[in-house]
Amino acid sequence: MTRKERYQQVLAYFQEHNPTAETELIYDSPYQLLVAVVLSAQCTDKRVNMTTPAIFAKYPDVQTLATATFDELFPLIRSISYPNNKTKHLIGMAHMLVNDFGGEIPMTVEELVKLPGVGRKTANVITSVIDEQPNMAVDTHVFRVAARLGLTRNATTPLAAEKQLVQYIPKEQIHIAHHWLILHGRYICLARSPKCGECGLRAICPYYKKKIKPLEKSGS
């Protein structure tokens, strides 16, 4: 199977089985998504979704968030991982958005990464989800699933994986392929105990063939 054929089969499978895949973060505006994505770093979407309603109730937009003090915002974020840093990042982000971007959320990766707490992955999420730009955010799920399925080869960093994925995925599918890979990693292709028996891609999966199938044959 050529690499192009592998991509075609994987994408066709996801298109058939999850044609409307989308982020599991709950948001109503680009501002809310940006806050949620910043909070989601090394934290579950479920926990973020439990936390953001109180934040958005008190700080419904960038302008109000820019008025927050650390002591006011921290209690709303303390259940999230790394609450100290994320509190500082959100306040600094809001200040920069108000002072440098007129209170609007920029829609280019280059501008977004200037914001405190916003790295390339977050910027890719914002631009692909809000604007359907062909940007691939590579988190731990995407990195793992892409490698196991043979979509990436010898990619040792998220950026290396991103470059390979955007090279082979049709531009119009990149924004949804990001969600396909994340959700597959979150619910099927788990890090420690992948649910290969439930996976419709195991027939073409190099990881299953090399790592899992031999164990099944040996009865381990």
UniProtKB/TrEMBL annotation:
In the record's cofactor note, how is the cofactor described as bound? Binds 1 [4Fe-4S] cluster.
* Residue ranges annotated for the HhH-GPD domain, each copy included: 39-187
In Gene Ontology terms, what is a biological process of this protein? base-excision repair, AP site formation
Cofactors needed by this protein, per the record, are: [4Fe-4S] cluster
List its EC numbers.
4.2.99.18
Spell out the reaction equation it catalyses.
2'-deoxyribonucleotide-(2'-deoxyribose 5'-phosphate)-2'-deoxyribonucleotide-DNA = a 3'-end 2'-deoxyribonucleotide-(2,3-dehydro-2,3-deoxyribose 5'-phosphate)-DNA + a 5'-end 5'-phospho-2'-deoxyribonucleoside-DNA + H(+)
InterPro entries this protein is in? DNA_glycosylase, Endonuclease-III-like_CS2, Endonuclease3_FeS-loop_motif, Endouclease-III_FeS-bd_BS, HhH-GPD_domain, HhH_base_excis_C, HhH_motif, Nth
List the PROSITE patterns hit by this protein, alphabetically. Answer: ENDONUCLEASE_III_1, ENDONUCLEASE_III_2
* Enzyme class label: lyase
This molecule's function is given as:
DNA repair enzyme that has both DNA N-glycosylase activity and AP-lyase activity. The DNA N-glycosylase activity releases various damaged pyrimidines from DNA by cleaving the N-glycosidic bond, leaving an AP (apurinic/apyrimidinic) site. The AP-lyase activity cleaves the phosphodiester bond 3' to the AP site by a beta-elimination, leaving a 3'-terminal unsaturated sugar and a product with a terminal 5'-phosphate.
Q: To which protein family does this belong? A: Belongs to the Nth/MutY family.
Tell me what this protein is called.
Endonuclease III
Q: Which organism is it from?
A: Deminuibacter soli
Query: Gene encoding this polypeptide?
Result: nth
